[in-house]
Design a protein that fits this description.
single chain, mainly alpha, extended
Length: 478
C-alpha cells in the first residue's frame, strides 16, 4: 500500500510539473511581461540588496579591525556607522580613481581621432570636388532628393525628440531607484543582525523543521559561492590590470596605466571582459601609434593565456570550485538571457547549483550504500539464525518461546542495537518466560553451548560486513 501511494504521488508530481511547463510555454509572452513588471517594481529592493551585499564584504573585515583598536564601550556604538562609512568611501574612491584615470585619456584620444578625421577629410575634398562637377550632378533629380532629405530630417528630429523625452524619463527613474537603493542598503547594513533574527523567528514559527534546514543550507551555500566569486574575481582583476600596466610600461606603449585600469575593470566580467578591454586599448593606442596597437594585441593575448591557465584557476576557480566547462556553459546561458549582467551573475549561480547537486548526489549515494549494506547484513544474519535454529527438543524451549512471543526476527535491529532488550541467547529472559527447570544443569549446559555457537555465527556474519557499513565488531564471548 505504501508503494502504491508513493507511485501515485510521483505520478501526480510529474503531471503537475508537466502542466506548469505547458503553461509557461503557452503563455510565454504574458509570463515575461508579468515578470518584467514584478522586476521593475522590485528594482530598488534588488539593487539595494546587491549594494549592501557588496559593501558588507568590505565592511566585515574593516569592522573587525576597528573592533580590535577601539576598546571604549561608548565608542563601540559608533563602530558600525564608522565601518560602513569607510566601506562606502573606499568603494566610491576605487571607481572615482578609475574614472579619473580613464575619462581624461579617452577624451584626449577622441580629440586626436577627430583631428585625424579632419585631416583625412581635407585630403579627400579635392577628389570629392571633381566628382561633384555640374555634369555629374545633372544626372540626379536634385529637387526630389531635397524633398526626401527634408522629410528624413523632420522624421529624425521627431524621433530624436521622442528618444530624448524617453531617455530623460528613464534617467530620472533610474536616479530615483538608485537613491532609494542606497538608502535601503544603509538600513540593511545597520540592522542586518536584527533582520536575520526576525527571519529566523518567522521560519521557526511557520516553516517545518526539515524544510527549514534545507532553506538554511541552500542560502548558506549561495552566500558562500557569491562571496568567494566576488572576492576571487576582484583579486583576479587587480592582478591582471597590474600585470597589463607593468608589461605595457616595459614595452614602452602609450597609455599604460589607463589601459591597465580598463583591462582590470573589464576583467570583472568572466572570460570576455579582458577582450573587451583589449579592444578599447587597441583603439586608443591606434590613435597614437598604429603599429604598437598590433603589438599590444599580441601582448594581451599572451597575458590572457597566462591568466586563464595559471591565475584564474587558482584565484577564482579554486574559490568557487566550478570546472571550466561549466563556467563556459554558465556564461553562454547568462549572456543570452541577461547580457553583461547575466554573464556576471551566471557563474556564481551555476557554482551554487553545481555544489547543491553534487552534495545531494553524494548524500543519495551514501544512503544507497548504507541501505544495500544493511540488506546484505540482514540476509546474512537471518541465514546464520536459520542454520542454528534447529536445537534439541529438550534444549532451547525457552528461546523458541521467547522468539514466538516477540514476533518476527528483525536482523537489522539485533545488529544495530545488540544491547537493547533481551538478546537472542538471553538465558534469564527465556527461562523466566517459559518457567523451565533452572536446576537441570544438563539442559542448561546444552542450551548455553547451542546459544554460544549461534552467537559466534552472528558475530562472524556481522564482522564480515563491518568494514562496508563502518561498524566495529565486538570481541567474541569466550
Amino acid at each position: 500500500m505504501q508503494k502504491e501511494d508513493l507511485y501515485a504521488r510521483r505520478i501526480l508530481t510529474f503531471v503537475v510539473w508537466l502542466f506548469a511547463l505547458w503553461l509557461i510555454v503557452h503563455y510565454w509572452d504574458q509570463a515575461m511581461a508579468l515578470l518584467g513588471g514584478i522586476f521593475s517594481a522590485l528594482a530598488p529592493l534588488i539593487i539595494g540588496f546587491a549594494i549592501a551585499y557588496v559593501v558588507n564584504i568590505l565592511m566585515v573585515p574593516i569592522e573587525g579591525q576597528l573592533g580590535k583598536l577601539i576598546k571604549s564601550p561608548g565608542a563601540k556604538k559608533a563602530l558600525r556607522p564608522l565601518s560602513m562609512l569607510l566601506s562606502f568611501v573606499l568603494l566610491i574612491g576605487i571607481f572615482a580613481a578609475i574614472f579619473s584615470l580613464v575619462i581624461p585619456k579617452m577624451a584626449s584620444c577622441f580629440e586626436v581621432l577627430a583631428k585625424q578625421i579632419s585631416n583625412a577629410t581635407s585630403f579627400l575634398m579635392p577628389y570629392v570636388g571633381q566628382w561633384l562637377s555640374p555634369d555629374f550632378l545633372s544626372q540626379f533629380d536634385m529637387q526630389n532628393m531635397l524633398k526626401n532629405g527634408i522629410k528624413w530630417l523632420l522624421s529624425l528630429a521627431d524621433g530624436t525628440l521622442n528618444s530624448f523625452i524617453a531617455g530623460a524619463g528613464a534617467f530620472f527613474s533610474s536616479t530615483v531607484n538608485i537613491l532609494i537603493a542606497v538608502v535601503l542598503s544603509v538600513y540593511l547594513l545597520s540592522g542586518k543582525e536584527k533582520l536575520l533574527d526576525q527571519l529566523s523567528v518567522l521560519m521557526d514559527a511557520y516553516v517545518p523543521a526539515s524544510f527549514r534546514k534545507k532553506i538554511r543550507y541552500v542560502t548558506g551555500m549561495t552566500n558562500k559561492c557569491f562571496h568567494n566569486y566576488i572576492v576571487g574575481q576582484s583579486v583576479e582583476a587587480v592582478i591582471l590590470g597590474t600585470l597589463c600596466a607593468i608589461g605595457m610600461a616595459i614595452l614602452q606603449m602609450p597609455y599604460a596605466v589607463m589601459i591597465g585600469c580598463v583591462v582590470g575593470a573589464t576583467a570583472l566580467i568572466p572570460f570576455v571582459g579582458a577582450y573587451i578591454g583589449a579592444a578599447v586599448g587597441a583603439v586608443l593606442i591606434f590613435t597614437v601609434a598604429p603599429i604598437k596597437a598590433l603589438f599590444f594585441l599580441i601582448f594581451l593575448v599572451v597575458l590572457q593565456q597566462i591568466e586563464s591557465n595559471l591565475i584564474y584557476p587558482h584565484v577564482v576557480g579554486g574559490s568557487i570550485g566550478l570546472p571550466g566547462m561549466w563556467v563556459l556553459i554558465a556564461i553562454a546561458i547568462g549572456g543570452s538571457f541577461g547580457g553583461i549582467v547575466g554573464i556576471v551573475l551566471s557563474v556564481p549561480i551555476m557554482a551554487t547549483v553545481y555544489h547543491l547537486a553534487k552534495d545531494a548526489t553524494e548524500e543519495r549515494r551514501s544512503q544507497v550504500r548504507i541501505e544495500r549494506a544493511r540488506a546484505q547484513t540482514n540476509d546474512r544474519l537471518e541465514a546464520a539464525l536459520q542454520q542454528g535454529s534447529a536445537p534439541d527438543p529438550d534444549a532451547a524451549e525457552g528461546g523458541s518461546s521467547s522468539r514466538q512471543d516477540g514476533g518476527a526476527f528483525d536482523a537489522s535491529a539485533q545488529f544495530e542495537s545488540p544491547s537493547e532488550g533481551p538478546g537472542i541467547c538471553d538465558k534469564g529472559a527465556s527461562s523466566g518466560d517459559d518457567g523451565s527447570d533452572e536446576g537441570d544443569s544438563a539442559e542448561d549446559g546444552e542450551s548455553e553451548a547451542h546459544c554460544g555457537t549461534l552467537f559466534d555465527q552472528l558475530l562472524d556474519a556481522a564482522a564480515s560486513l563491518g568494514s562496508s557499513v563502518g561498524l566495529s565488531g565486538k570481541g567474541k564471548k569466550k
